[in-house]
Specification:
Elements lengths: L3 E2 L2 E2 H26 L3 H29 L6 H27 L8 H27 L11
Pfam families: DUF2231 (PF09990)
Keywords: Membrane, Transmembrane, Transmembrane helix
Organism: Pirellulimonas nuda
């Protein structure tokens, strides 16, 4: 069970965008700190907001994929922690974004700390997602290689 397009799961197709945007926002924060160029605060603010929205779009598809894992399978438990880490990461990024919601959107120390913690959680969620696919074969169609 899972939402597919042309035989490919939708959740893995969608997660690249929020991952890139959310990690990118932290990179832009580093650029801001390194250069003191205020435009980086704007770029970080908008990539952060788009990353949060795209992460929220990807989440229901991951939930549907998890529902398709048989009860009692080790992947069910891993899927739960993958989802929890991902949702907590997006929540921390959202808190960071909220703290920046001013003009100009210069991040506070707390906002930067929340984003840093969120990146760590996002990395854990990604690692657990890899465990689901590569160790447990979640969403993998078994077939003969060409």
């Amino acid at each position: 069970m899972g939402v597919e397009i042309l035989g490919h799961r939708v959740h893995p197709m969608l997660v690249g965008l929020p991952i890139g945007l959310l990690v990118g926002s932290v990179v832009f924060d580093v650029a801001l700190m390194a250069t003191d160029e205020p435009r980086w605060a704007d770029v970080s603010f908008w990539t952060l907001g788009l990353g949060i929205v795209s992460g929220l779009i990807a989440a229901p598809f991951g939930t549907i994929d998890r529902l398709g894992i048989p009860s009692g399978a080790p992947a069910k438990h891993i899927g739960l922690w993958h989802g929890v880490a991902a949702v907590l990461s997006v929540a921390l990024f959202a808190a960071s974004w909220t703290l920046r919601y001013q003009s100009p959107p210069t991040p506070t120390t707390l906002a930067l700390g929340l984003s840093a913690a969120a990146v760590v959680l996002l990395a854990i969620a990604g690692w657990l997602g890899g465990e689901l696919v590569f160790r447990h074969g979640v969403g993998v169609h078994r077939g003969v290689a060409d």
